[in-house]
Design goal:
single chain; about 55 residues; mainly beta; two-stranded antiparallel ribbon; 4 strands; about 40% strand; globular
Length: about 55
């Protein structure tokens, strides 16, 4: 399923997509406001204990 990206001022749809990491600046064609969309992935680190199995 694709995520929807919308104007934060008038809520009009900009685009749909799956984006892992990006910074996108978009000017809304309806209300003319600039929107900054920041998308960042969180990296999950698993530490290994002495037995070699992942654990917390």
């Amino acid at each position: 399923m694709l995520k929807e990206y919308r104007c934060e001022y008038c809520n009009k749809l900009f685009f749909k997509g799956n984006i892992k990491e990006a910074t996108i600046e978009v000017k809304c064609r309806y209300c003319k406001n600039m929107n900054l969309i920041k998308i960042a992935t969180l990296l999950h680190r698993t530490s290994l204990n002495q037995s070699g199995r992942g654990g917390i």
